[in-house]
Amino acid sequence: MEQVDPREIQTLQMYLNEYGQQIEILTQQLGMIEQQRLESAAAIESIRAIQENEDGVVLLPIGGGALLRVKVLDRGHVLVNLGADVSVERASADAVEYLEDRITELEALGKKVAGSIEQLQGQATQISRRLEAAYQVARQAQAGQSGS
Asked: Which of 78, 46, 73, 71 minimizes the C-alpha distance to 57?
């Protein structure tokens, strides 16, 4: 009967743990990407709703479930965060276009991350099978030694 090297089992277990950690990190990233996508979509809806609102009065959440009724002074322009604490003023239509482009980029990034997760899960499954086979051989060898 074939002997199983304990170092091989240990190495396989280490790889499996690393893949599990990578999958967890990528899953968190995927959640953040989805959150950003949803926020961008909500911003587009809000910009369009403000454009359609005749009196320019909107509800502004201030936390704790409290809202203020506020009047939007300039419905034609929006401040858009470009990243790194940089915001620029854009016409509402330009802001919507920018946010739609951001959503497209986020969707592409989400697909790429989801593909990476799927690939890692496949590799983890293969390692898991090899690890289980190694455990089986070790159990059979141990049973063979006990029976002698």
From this structure: 71
